[in-house]
Amino acid sequence: MTARILDGNALAAQVREDIAQQAAALIAQGVQPCLAVILVGDNPASAVYVRNKVAACEKAGFRSLKFDYPADVSPEVVLAKIDELNRDPLVHGILVQLPLPKQFNEEEVLEAISPAKDVDGFHAENFGLLLQGRKSFYPCTPWGVMKMLEVGGVSLKGAEAVVIGRSNIVGKPMAVMLLSQGATVTVCHSQTRDLAFHTKRADIVVAAVGKPKFVTGDMIKPGATVIDVGINRLPDGKLCGDVDFESAKEVAGLITPVPGGVGPMTITMLLSNTLESARRAAAHFQSTP
Ligand code: GUN
User: Could you tell me the fold of the domain covering 140-263?
Assistant: First the structure.
């Protein structure tokens, strides 16, 4: 059996078209969604991600602001910029691209962003709301995965889901979102004793470990859904995921490719969060005499 492939590019294009239409309606009311992006240092992968985010904003009709700082910038300078952006009513989303250079305390930087503009969903307040099942900005990558599962027709109620990876950005919020939709969730990580034991009994495997081709076909239950969050660069320059696509697609029922799977959905959900923030700002503006 060869798995059905979940095309993230096609889904992202469809959702972004809808977002662009909603942005146009908001602009007609006098509010243009605006995302401010802060990039520190010269990490080439971060530069590509930021470029893609800014381009996606512009294509959707959003305003975007980009602030570049050298790798040795003092944290106070970046914190002052965040403070300025927090207070700017024309800015709806603020994103600081991670990782940051070592003089930064990432937690301190992320907590400095107003929760109302935290379109990455990384602020402790938003993460706490997510944990409690309350409305917040959801972290973009796991939320993009949830959209893909929905569009793929994957039933979550009572499903056995295994998340590999326990990062604050992907693994932990992914586990919470799957749990909230009724899945039985196991979170595996680098100290898990027998990873294959867990993955072989999973209806859904989400791989977010950052290790190329780490999950192989023999670790997957026939017919399972396999979501690959990894983006790794091989020595020959090609991109590959955390899943060995060639062997996994022969066993899985549904699988996401890399590139062209989860990646495009991450930026799409960032646009969605920014649109939502702008909409809240517009509602607030209209209800304030
Ligand atoms: N670095 C890697 N992924 C992300 C992301 O989704 N947001 C930010 N801000 N930094 C990242």
Answer: Rossmann fold (3.40.50)
Q: What residue ranges do the domains of the chain occupy?
A: 30-114, 140-263
| Domain 30-114 identical in fold to domain 140-263 | yes
Query: 189-237, pLDDT tens digit by residue?
Result: 999 999 999 999 999 999 999 999 999 999 999 999 999 999 999 999 9
Taking the centre of ligand 1 as the mean of its atom positions, its distance from the CA of residue 247, in whole angstroms, is 29
Torsion of CA 120, 125, 130, 133, to 10 degrees: -150
List, in sequence order, every residue forming a beta bridge with 38; answer none if it has no partner. Answer: 67, 96
Radius of gyration, CA atoms only, the chain: 19
Ligand 1 pocket test, pick from 37, 38, 46, 49 with the greatest ligand atom count within 8 Å of Cβ, gives 49
**CATH no. for 30-114:** 3.40.50.10860
Residue 58 host element (H or E):
helix 44-59
Residue 61, φ and ψ in degrees, nearest 5: 85, 10
Within 6 A (CB) of ligand 1 lie 95-98, 120, 140-141, 169, 266
pLDDT digits (tens, 9 = 90+) for 35-74: 999 999 999 999 999 999 999 999 999 999 999 999 999 9
Which residues are the active-site residues? 53, 97, 120
Label residue 261 exposed, middle or buried (CB < 10 Å: 0-12, 13-18, 19+).
buried
Take atom 3 of ligand 1 and give the residue whose Cα is closest.
Answer: 98
In sequence order, the β-bridge partners of residue 185 are 161
Is residue 237 left, alpha or beta, with left meaning phi > 0 and alpha meaning psi from -120 to 50?
A: left
Q: How far does residue 98's CA lie from ligand 1's centre (Å)?
A: 5
